[in-house]
Amino acid sequence: MKKLLLASCIAIAAAGCVSTSMQSIGSNETNTDVVAQQSAELSIPFEKYTLDNGLTIILHQDKSDPIVAISTIVHVGSNREKPGRTGFAHFFEHMAFNDSENVPQGANRKMIEELGGTRNGGTWSDGTIYYEVVPKDAFEKLMWIDSDRLGYMIKTVNEGALEREKQVVKNEKRQRVDNRPYGHTGHVIRKNLYPEDHPYNWTVIGDLEDLQAATLEDVKEFYKQYYGPSNATVVIAGDIDIAKTKELVKYWFGEISASEPVADMAPMPVSLAETKKLYHIDNFAKLPELRMTFPTVEEYSKDSYALNVLSEILSSGKRAPLYQVLVEEKQLAPSAWAYNSSQEVAGTFTLHVRAKPGIDLDAVYAGINEALARFEEKGFSDKDLDIIKAKLETKFYNGISSALDKAFQLGTYEEYAGDPAFITQDIKNIKAVTKEDVMRVYSKYISKKPFIMTSFVPKGQQELIVDGSLIANVKEEQIVAGAEKNFDSDMSVAYQKTETKNDRSEPELGDLPLIKVPEVHSYQAGNGLEILNVEHRELPLVNFKLRIEGGAWLESFDKLGTASLLSQLMNEGTKNKTPEALDDEIGLLGAGINISSDGNSIYIYGNTLARNFEQTMSLVTEMLLEPRWDQKEFDRIKASRLTTIEQNYARPDTIASNVFYKQLYGTKHRAGLPTIGTKNTVASISLDDLKHFYQNAISPMNATLNVVGDISQQEIVKSTKHLAKQWQGKAIELPEFKTPAIVKKPKVFFVDVPNAKQSVIMMGKPGLNGTDPEYYPFTVAQNRLGAGGSARLFQTLRIEKGYTYGAYSYMSQRHYDTPFIARSQVRTNVTLESLEIFKDLVGNYAETFEQSDLDTTKNLLMKQKSRYFETINNVVGMLDTISEFDLPHNYIEQQQQELQSMTLQQAKAIYNKHADEQQMIYVVVGDAKTQLNRMKSLGYGDPIVLDKDGNRL
């Protein structure tokens, strides 16, 4: 692997060793003509070289959009940690977003967003990644920030930042693990599958007590050991000049001190002597869940490819044995999954079933065994393999659709496969999998082999646990008021600045990139269907979105959920094709087609290879115009929907949203009730109800087809001629609902979730219709309140206080007076304190909004538009906005002019007009035992206690 090369370069760094190779993914001079032809279709040109200090650099030029992405992969994940210091790699990722020697405090988190870019990081078992995308004029600023983080951040770390990030990471753990159903499953499986000294014995986020014990010395030791240039790869992709970029790389990254290479970890597969059955009584779960986890092999091994295919064969599609037995025949669950997860040193293969309410998991276990026995007896066909391989090509292209995607791929292959061009071999390996390979790995790793079984069941339903299971060791955190340490987020530390030959002060912006709005073509079919398209020739793909206005807006109030059930049923075969046959035809095209709905519309989304667009549209036409109306499928879907509704009672965030909208809009406005319906309304819906709704809600006169990709308007019209001819209907008038009166004084509503580790907070009031001329100006005016990580809510509640993982405000664009919302999930014992911050920041925002805030907003929003047209999905979204809200094709240019002309007085006035805090309601979902009485101190009277459906208690 590449580490051997880097070690030799570092050893003779004084001699100026630089290893350079100019390659293209999928190209090799020794390839045969056949392989070369295939490779040309998969080409991502790149240049790779190594700096004297050991840092690997990969450059990829893509001038299709005026943006640049940088991805820095550091080859250190939780697998490098030690028992007693778990979660440290992830914690360090958080620490690395603070200041460094030459980049001021807060700039890393705020500046990139304010420059019109996006940034984030991620940690997994095997690595850590930092990534950003900015308009090209901010490219050198990004180089300055990234290089300083890698080489010059450790001296600036202080106790205040350490304690703040501890609290932020703990909030993240509460949100993702402790305060959600089945959140502890990964912990239970790892602790019982891997020995205590195995690097996968703990979860990436780690144990809270380990995190709390972290010291500054631990941070510095971790940095010194793993954050050297020899253990990292930097990928720069986008609208760059290669020669100039090399100069900038040498200037900003070249002076970072060299480091000792970190050896790659050798594979460490594990085995089980016997099956272990474990259970946990889950505070949040509403449904019983069973998982069976088998130890397998590391990534890129031959067996891992066959195991990936095996997972698809077992659970994907209507012919999959897990689906047939558990979902169709025994009706034990709405779905069943199988997935292989091969990582750097070991892997797992999981069978995962979340059953229907009240189902005994012994029955699920028996069903899984029956499905596996059927697979052993019947196997699978060559056609099944063909479908999987057809999907691969489309999946590959989708995976490199943006500059950042390409940076991810190049860097990942470099660090974990030893070569950024490994994608060619990766695809070959997948396509080379045979039926014999799949059956071999099934026999080797799954059939009659020991596994870890977990039964997670709701409170009071212990009888559903698989017989013979032992209680799992799960530690539930106790949230205690005042237990968290106070910290000073503005604390600074004294240190001697590292001497550098190059000036490391903040560089100037480059030339402002020119933003070119793509040309939009429009066409009106004879049946009234509107077609909008943009040619996007970068990849041989086409994405489309057919939107039919109406959706849940057209439902009768005693049949809420009809549109959602209809859209789901329309995915399940056609008049002349069984669900299985339809799945096969879509799969053989390497396409994806999905019908769904929301409060305003029914949608048909599609993604396909350009050469298969006409065949894909033929299937869309059949799905749309010839539903199967299968009673058996309807019964299954309806049962699944009722299960989902039940499951939502375990999700505090969903509870908060449903309750908030009900209190704001009431029960006579469609927005006040769940889009997917309620238990009572869904239970009352029949197949005839769906047929009636279909006849009255599906019309081309209310529809627009948005198409973007490697295709011309002429080809689109040709491919949709049968749809335009066969689909007929009259325009459907959409009902209007009167927005309820705004409250005269704030109210606080509270929903109890006993023992919740976090409280969900939502506040807001009815706002603006998406067609209102003041909608866009309002989004501009409120931007610095909560539109992203650089805004006030996030900066105060997360960065300054450490109360939350994130906090935001927004107003969605819809065809009714959608609410202005501010929301967050905060640590339980600071619920009142967080509410007071919301009250202050939202209520006093206009008074404290200054010209500098408006200037920042203008700069941010202007530059963000440079990314609007990067991928075909972005452009499909733009077309959908144009058609849905009847906007001119150049509405983005008009918004730019409106943005530039906005004054401070106008911004303040429009915010005050539509975001008066004294007209807002507050909804809190949390632990009533410890927090309910505290709500009185907010000053808005006694909180009104509601159940999880939003009814007063």
The 3D shape can be described as globular
The CATH architecture name of the largest domain reads: 2-Layer Sandwich
Summarize model confidence as the mean pLDDT: 90
What's the helical proportion of residues?
40-55%
InterPro entries: Metalloenz_LuxS/M16, MPP/UQCRC_Complex, Pept_M16_N, Peptidase_M16_C
Pfam families: Peptidase_M16 (PF00675), Peptidase_M16_C (PF05193)
Protein name: Insulinase family protein
Domain Peptidase M16 N-terminal: 57-181, 542-666
SSE layout:
Elements lengths: L1 H10 L8 E5 L8 H9 L3 E6 L5 E6 L5 E8 L13 H8 L11 H8 L3 E7 L2 E9 L3 H13 L7 H20 L6 H9 L14 H5 L3 H11 L5 E7 L3 H12 L22 E7 L6 E7 L6 H14 L5 H9 L7 E6 L4 E8 L6 H18 L3 H17 L4 H15 L5 H9 L3 H12 L5 E7 L11 E2 L49 E4 L5 E6 L5 E9 L12 H8 L9 H10 L3 E6 L3 E9 L3 H13 L5 H18 L3 H14 L13 H6 L2 H11 L5 E7 L3 H7 L1 H6 L20 E6 L5 E11 L6 H7 L1 H4 L5 H9 L3 E8 L6 E10 L3 H13 L1 H4 L2 H14 L7 H13 L6 H11 L2 H11 L6 E6 L1 H4 L12 E3 L7
Parallel strand pairs: 3-7, 8-12, 8-13, 15-19, 20-24, 20-25
Antiparallel strand pairs: 1-2, 2-3, 4-6, 4-7, 5-6, 9-11, 9-12, 10-11, 14-15, 16-18, 16-19, 17-18, 21-23, 21-24, 22-23
Helix pairs in contact: 3-6, 5-10, 11-17, 12-13, 18-24, 20-25, 27-35, 29-30
Short description:
The protein has 953 residues and is an alpha+beta fold.
Account of the 3D structure:
By secondary structure, the chain is an alpha+beta fold. It folds into four domains: 2-253, Metalloenzyme, LuxS/M16 peptidase-like (Cytochrome Bc1 Complex, Chain A, domain 1, 2-Layer Sandwich); 276-395 and 417-471, Cytochrome Bc1 Complex, Chain A, domain 1 (2-Layer Sandwich); 521-726, Metalloenzyme, LuxS/M16 peptidase-like (Cytochrome Bc1 Complex, Chain A, domain 1); 747-946, Cytochrome Bc1 Complex, Chain A, domain 1. Helix content is 40%, strand content 18%. It has a seven-stranded mixed β-sheet, with helices on both faces. It has a six-stranded mixed β-sheet with strand order 10-11-9-12-8-13, sandwiched between helices. The chain has a six-stranded mixed β-sheet with strand order 14-15-19-16-18-17, sandwiched between helices. Strand 14 and strand 15 form a beta hairpin. Helix 12 crosses helix 13 (361-378).
